[in-house]
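Tutorial handout. Part one gives the primary structure; part two gives the three-dimensional structure as tokens.
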Amino acid sequence: MLDKFQWKKWILPLAIGIILWLLTPLKPAEINVDAWHLFAIFVATIIACITKPLPMMATTLIAVVVATLTGIFNMKEVAAGFGNSTAWMVAMCMFLAAGFIKSGLGKRIAYIFVRSFGKSTLGLAYALSLVETVLAIGIPSNNARVNGIMYPLIDGLSREMGSDPEKGTQRKLGSYLVFNEYEVNNVTSGMFITGLAGNMVALGLAKTQGIEISWMQWFLAAIVPGVISLLVVPFLLYKVYPPEIKQTPDAHNWADKKLKELGKMTPAEKIMSVVFLLAIILWLVGSHIGIDATETSFIAVVLLLITGVINTKDLLNESFAWNILTWLSIIMLMSQKLMTLGFFPWFSKTLGSCLHGVNWILVLVILWLVYFYLHYLFPSVSTQISALYAGFLSIALGAGVPKIMAALMLAMCGTVYLSTSTYSAGPAAMISSTGYISNKDFWKLSAIIGVVFNIIWLGGGLLWTKVIGYW
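Part two.
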């Protein structure tokens, strides 16, 4: 049963949806009745995803039932919508991530890098950044990477080095390494389509507006701003948020001890390594041999199932994967219908005419910055993408921004805008509550790195994409 507070969360989405529905007689002449009614349902759904009277999965299921009962959809369309390739790719990548964690390969990679490069605190930060980058290729959950692998490792290492928030010694080493991991996680989330589920959500929405971007296209656009960020962030934090311990000679011994505890690579780790490498190769070149990114993720998961690295119970336990498969399929179904009914083309054309004569680069810069700083109002990556991405993309297209640039830049903004608040995403909420970083420092440092990200990813990103011929 919903409590009184939960019922109140229905008031705003229902009020906005009903008002828009009742305004049908006043709708623009270019939009038909079905398009306007679906727009009303879509807006109400997005607002409900923000107020959260129910989880997003339940909210979107209610929306699609309403749209079906009102004759906007038929059940064949709804059923077909759950075959969306982007939604299935997200789910498959989540299953692939389960293999990484279950096999223990992620931890082994981390210990190897720490043992090899962790002689100084700065070197240790770069080593951990490299681990985060490798993991981001195949683990599309920033929560899984931070909470499941990286934070426990950094916490254990910091305490081993005498940096313990319970003893008030967190600034010795842990504060720096923990916050560096948070910001580097934001970078790696943007370097690969598979680095964050939100990336695939955004590009799935772009696809409904006729824009398709491959794994390789994303990687080429993100590699330079990504690498620059990976070089700048650890060094900048080392200067503005310096650790008290500068040298970490014991990190090598600690990592070596952990590797000895793990023992030799297990068959599961070896198989996971091979499957992971195969997935990377196919993501890079698969489009040239007729294998797209979604098919690659299916191949990888099937190989893990056949070899026993994961089993069907592991798949069923990945509740987030099934959750996102459901609500993303419905959001994209509604978005696609708004496209075919002519709403998004009208929206794009109308706003584009208002911006006629304005340079598209200026429009894109303004959209990026607004989109970035609006994340202070959103406690969820997927919620903001679902609420704003399609509309911002339509504005960009209407203003003459090249299709690939509009889709890519706004999608990549949806990763670096995580450097905003303590509630920007799951890793922020967790890391800000560990005791390693004070609330004041978290907000201040996030704001500083956020400005740096805007310079690198917006300014540098525009220059780099010009070099590689995206515009």
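Part three, for discussion. Residues 321 and 369 are 30 Å apart (CA to CA). The radius of gyration is 23 Å.
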